[in-house]
Each structure stands twice: as C-alpha cells, then as structure tokens.
Amino acid sequence: MSNYLIFLMIIHIIGLNTMTKIHARKQTDKFLSRLQQVECPDTTFFADRFPIVMKRGNGMWIRDVDNNRYLDFTACFAVLALGHRPKTSLTAIRKQAASLLHGMGDVHPTLAKIKLLELLAEISPFENAKSLLGQSGGDAIESAMKTAMLATGRKRFLSFSGGYHGLQFAPLVLNDREDFTRGFESWISGKTVTLPFPYFKSDLSSNQNHLTKDYLWTEHKLEQPEIVLQQMEDELKKKEFAALIMEPFQGRGGKRGFSADFVKSCKELCKKYGTLLVFDEIYTGFGRTGKMFAYEHYNVIPDLLCVGKAMGGGLPISACVGEILDVWGKSKGEARQTQTFLGNPLACAVAYETIKEIQNKLPLFQKELVQIDFIFQKFISFMQKNGLSDRFPFEIRGKGFMRGVWFYTQKEGFAVPMMEILLELGYIVLPEGPRADVLSLTPPLIAKSEHFEKILNALQSELKKM
C-alpha cells in the first residue's frame, strides 16, 4: 500500500471528521507500538487509526483488543469460507490433535494426507488427478511452474497484468506490480511476459459513458479482448512458454474476470502452441464465486489447477492438482518439491472436513446469492436516485461472494481511505486493483443478504458526505 500513503494521510479531511462513531484504541495502540519494535518494517502498514489488533472471531464477526466489534467482509483474505472458528474446523482440530500433530510428509504418509488427496482427486475436473501439496498459495503456483517446465521443456511464462500468484521467488516473476517486485528486478527479468488485462463490461454498473476504449487504456491499462488475444498468440508462436498462468477472477487485481469465449480462446491457443494452461484458483476455489470452482463459469478445464486459502479452514495448506504430475517420475529417495510441513496431518484433517462441509452447504450458499444480487440492484438504484452514480461512477465486479465496487473515475487510491472510514464504522474491508480504486467485498460464504445491505448502506451514507 505504500503507493497510496498520501490517501491515508488525508483520511481525516474526507472521512473521519464526518463520522459519528470513533472506536477506542488504547490497547490497540499499545500492542501496535510493541509490534513495530520486533517486526520487519515492510510487513505491516501503520496509519493514524489503522490497523486494529484482532483478538477473537466468531462467524461473521471479529473483536479487537479494545473489544470493538467488526463485520468481516474479507474472510481474512478469503480463507475463512465457513466463518471464524467454525465448528467444522474446531472439531477436526480436536480429533486429529488427539492422535497425531505432525508427520513426515514425503517419507511416512499419514491417513489424513491420503484421505485429503483422494478427496481432491474426486472433486477435481480430471479423470486421473494427482496432487502436490504445499502450505501456501505460492507453494502451489511454484509446483505448477515446475511441473510445466518438466512437461514442456520450456522455462518462460505468460501471465496477465494485475495478477497475484504469491511472492516466493518462483511466482514473483508472474507479478507486474512494482509494490512487490521492487528490488528484485534482476531476478524477474526475462522469465515472463505480462499481457494487458482485457476489459469486459459488467452486468451491474452505473452509467458507463466514461468507459471508452481510449479512457480504459489511458487511465486503467485495460485493453480490448481481441488485441490481447492477438498479443498472446504472437508470444505463444515463439514456443518458449511453459505455461499461461491466470486467475479465473483476479483477487488482488480488483475482482475482475473474463468472458467465457475469451477463456476458451486462451485454452485453444495454449493447446495449439504446446503451452500449458494453469488456473490459479487459490482465491476463487471452494465456493467463493458461487460455484465449487470458478472454471465452471467458463466451462474450460485447465491443465493444472492450484487451490488453497478456503481449503484449509483457517490452517495453511494448498495443492497443485492435475493429470500430468507423472512427469516428475517416481521418487528415488529425495523428493524435488517438498517441505518439512508437507501434508501436515492437522491441516489435512481440517481441509478434508472443510471441503466436505462446503460441498454440503453450497446449495444453501447459492440460494442466498439470489437475495444478495437483489441487494446489489438496490444499491445501484439508490446510487442513481441520489445522483451518487454521476459523482462516483462504478461497476460491480466479480461473482458470488467475491465482489468489488470499482470507482473507475476516482483518483488512484480512492478505496484506501474508504477502507479506514468503514473500519471506524465497524466493517473490515480491503482496497484492491492496480490503482486501489476497488472496494473489495469477500465475506465468509455464510454471509447473508442483510450483511451486504448493511455495508452497502454504510458505503452510500459515507459517499453522500463527500
């Protein structure tokens, strides 16, 4: 967020001075002072009244160390699909902890690991699926990159601008944001080609008079889909690329997605030129977009599927899944992609039960989304009726429980002060997009339409004051 520091500094001018609710921060400020003494300064961003120190969570709610209560519209980076401290996770933790806490991932397997791998194979789109487990999303992407190199004999990669695939050295080469790559340019150079992101009109928006081709490119570096596909084919023709790695809907990129035809064209071009297609579903997987996996919206099956976040029910675990993992060959005693905590039995047990619970409750989540879509329609009508859509033109991006309000005519960083304003009002949200002009709404899948109505009403109220 360093690029948006100036916007956090003016929060009092545009927001906090207009609000009636100011949270106590006595204990919070004490703990944050202690944190600054012991943590790498690049890790946590500090502003006047940001961040909070979380103490306890339950369902949709979080309390901080000053006992202030917040409605969580982040699911803590889309991890807590079933909410904070769900019974599913707690029960699985207690049961597994009573027998085995840690294992030897690539030596002596545990029953929990075997059951999870079987379940991943069962729910995947592949007939003969195998998986490589990891701890973080970046681990899964690194596994996919290595697998693609082994399968194709190539060493370069294609990705889309705005994509976020992790910050370990392998996935870092897929990132084009200077916030993350600064200081590591020499490592990244030559390993990847970043394609511009194509623009597709949202079904939910205010007036879109501003969104001309010139405006989209000049202000947002969004290109026309046919141009992007031509650039993609021009690169693929070189036959240098092991894989195209893409999020079906970008998370950190601002909750933006593609058309089904575009994704099908990506698949066809990759197949034509011998490049693998990898879907990064670390953010979008396990019900986040209203379907079990986001590839279902496009009816396109990738060569490799990377999953994580919600899969672990709050514990760190990820996986790279596909039919081509046999390219690694059989182990000769030393695994080439492993780690100490690979297939940790506690994480595997919780992941297994979490996936089963999401499967069982997905129809209920989908039913609630019908009402949530209606709330977004009400929000658009209110914004238009009160003239706010003219002052703050916007699009509603994303699918399901992965939404973003894109204020496309506002200055870079617009969503950052909105984040802190809403925090003071009792809502935890995040700014997203390359320009931080998208207000991200990604609550647990247990969120109800009234939760969305509550936060959208608060947003409307604050916009009216500006």
TrEMBL record:
InterPro entries: Aminotrans_3, Aminotrans_3_PPA_site, Class-III_PLP-dep_AT, PyrdxlP-dep_Trfase, PyrdxlP-dep_Trfase_major, PyrdxlP-dep_Trfase_small. GO terms for molecular function: identical protein binding; pyridoxal phosphate binding; transaminase activity. The keyword rRNA-binding does not apply. Its cofactor is pyridoxal 5'-phosphate. Pfam families: Aminotran_3. CDD domains: OAT_like. Gene3D superfamilies: Aspartate Aminotransferase, domain 1, Type I PLP-dependent aspartate aminotransferase-like (Major domain). Keywords: Aminotransferase, Pyridoxal phosphate, Transferase. PROSITE patterns: AA_TRANSFER_CLASS_3 (PS00600). It comes from the Bacteria. Belongs to the class-III pyridoxal-phosphate-dependent aminotransferase family. This is Aminotransferase class III-fold pyridoxal phosphate-dependent enzyme.
